[in-house]
Write a structure and sequence with these properties.
The protein is α/β, with parallel strands linked by helices. Helices cover 38% and strands 18% of the residues. It has nine helices and eight strands. The chain has an eight-stranded parallel beta sheet. The protein binds pyridoxal-5'-phosphate. Pyridoxal-5'-phosphate binds next to strand 8 and helix 9.
Length: 226
């Protein structure tokens, strides 16, 4: 299925300038990404390390690659040379490895703390108390190669817009509170929330990055394992 150029142009036109559109290209072929790139899109998001590494090698070098999936420590090394922003830092134990691999490449890596805001148990992320503990680590500047830029969250998978709105508002509130507690030299200014079904609501609630997949690339088909 080709990319939806009309949807792309509509979204670009409607989002305010302070909001970044990340085109979520997981499971989609190189040609589709290139087609969107040719229309001017530069921020792309992937969930799987191996897929991201293969696409990065095959596509233009000025693409900003966002890792939006659940990251395993032993795979950080594959994306450390080039990743633009890691959205899903959902446990403290990832940080030493990101710090180490960033250092090896002489980089500082930008990350977001993922907060658990959905009702589903299966979604990853910190709760409010755990984030308070993270702030303390941050204040000790234990990880000089990591730059915490803000937070990411995923709302419940539901048609209930009232509930989704409450979850986004909760995340925004946590984000604002943590921003006040961050050391003053940090640019804690990035809030990644909103997907194909709820990006307008997310922007209204204060999102600065929306992660949109199926609206641009069509529904995803996952092949069954053989
Ligand atoms: C797949 C995915 C998206 C995009 O979802 P759509 O509903 O297709 O827009 C956004 N964020 C994360 C973390 C994802 O895994």
């Amino acid at each position: 299925m080709p990319i939806d150029i009309t949807a792309y142009q509509r979204i670009r036109a409607e989002i305010p300038p302070h909001v970044t559109l990340v085109a979520v290209s997981k499971t989609k072929p190189i040609e589709d990404i290139q087609a969107l790139y040719d229309l001017g899109q530069r921020d792309f998001g992937e969930n799987y390390v191996q897929e991201l590494v293969e696409k990065q090698a095959a596509l233009p070098t000025d693409i900003r690659w966002h890792f939006i999936g659940h990251l395993q420590s032993n795979k950080v090394k594959y994306i450390a040379p080039f990743v633009h922003l890691i959205h899903g830092v959902d446990r403290a134990s990832l940080l030493p490895e990101i710090n180490k691999q960033a250092g090896k490449h002489g980089r500082t890596i930008d990350v977001l703390w993922q907060m658990h805001i959905a009702q589903e148990e299966t979604k990853f992320g910190f709760d409010a108390d755990e984030l308070q503990a993270m702030i303390k680590t941050e204040a000790q500047t234990t990880y000089p190669q990591i730059h915490v830029r803000g937070m990411m969250g995923m709302a419940s998978f539901t048609d209930n817009q009232t509930q989704v709105k409450q979850e986004f508002e909760y995340l925004k509130k946590q984000f604002d509170q943590l921003a006040l507690q961050m050391p003053s030299n940090t640019n804690f200014d990035t809030l990644s929330m909103g997907m194909s079904g709820d990006y307008r609501l997310a922007i209204a609630c204060g999102s600065t990055i929306i992660r949109v997949g199926s609206l641009l690339f069509g529904a995803r088909q996952y092949s069954n394992p053989v």
